[in-house]
Write a structure and sequence with these properties.
Blueprint: E1 18-24, E2 31-37, E3 46-52, E4 58-62, E5 75-80, E6 86-90, E7 99-103, E8 109-113, E9 124-129, E10 135-139, E11 144-148, E12 154-159, E13 168-174, E14 179-184, E15 190-194, H1 198-203, E16 222-224
Antiparallel strand pairs: 1-2, 2-3, 3-4, 5-6, 6-7, 7-8, 9-10, 10-11, 11-12, 13-14, 14-15, 15-16
Length: 225
């Protein structure tokens, strides 16, 4: 907070594991770091999530499911849900589609979401969660933001296409205003949307818009270029 004190969480001595994405947990004060390793026998990247306390000490590594298989390939965005679940947008375009990988706070694999409907190709980019524990993820393939519940059930597409051209790439949920900030990788624009109200957040009730409805139709968007 004083802008002077520095804590080193990771200091690389080689290039085996590379930090890719970070998230600070407001509930625990921990730092979650998504990492990848390109030096593998198969030539494919493999990933892991590490947790550090406020002193910079490694306290947890999440890498495999309960069968020993790797959970991640290339963690690109990471966040945390209200229940402590660790939510990762995992993709490596060189080796096909990606998925959203969710583990419980203790590291147990909760679910992996690969798109809607089942069997679809998902190319996930930015990811966040909201006050109602929804998981929101940008899908590069369909140019939509997809909304899931905390157990991975698809709820709706939030079609974000102001002025007819928009490619959602990154996003963040503002817990104070309950607005969704969405960054476009196509036209260097950030757009702010309202899709749940403060009352929704207080009462823990919200009915997502039917699939196909544009998110921007509910309220005017504010754009910066």
């Amino acid at each position: 907070m004083d802008m002077k004190t520095t804590t080193t969480f990771i200091e690389r001595t080689d290039y085996t594991w590379r930090p890719r994405c970070v998230y600070w947990s407001p509930s625990t004060g921990d730092l979650l770091v998504g990492m990848y390793n390109n030096v593998t026998k198969t030539g494919k990247a493999t990933g892991k999530v590490t947790r550090y306390n406020q002193s910079g000490q490694l306290t947890q590594t999440i890498q495999n499911d309960n069968t020993g298989l790797g959970l991640y390939r290339y963690p690109n965005y990471i966040t945390e849900n209200n229940n402590g679940d660790v939510v990762v947008s995992d993709f490596d375009d060189m080796y096909g589609p990606g998925d959203v990988v969710v583990t419980e706070r203790g590291g147990r694999h909760h679910f992996s979401y690969t798109g809607h409907p089942s069997g679809s190709v998902l190319k996930p980019r930015g990811i966040c969660t909201d006050a109602l524990s929804h998981i929101l993820v940008c899908d590069y393939r369909t140019d939509t933001v997809q909304m899931l519940d905390s157990d991975g059930q698809f709820l709706s597409h939030l079609l974000i296409r102001p002025s007819g051209i928009f490619s959602p790439w990154s996003l963040s949920y503002d817990v104070n205003t309950h607005r969704l900030w969405v960054g476009s990788g196509a036209n260097n624009t950030v757009v702010i949307y309202r899709y749940i109200t403060r009352q929704d957040a207080l009462t823990d009730e919200h009915r997502p818009c039917p699939d196909g409805d544009a998110l921007s139709s509910s309220t005017p968007a504010v754009e910066w270029r």
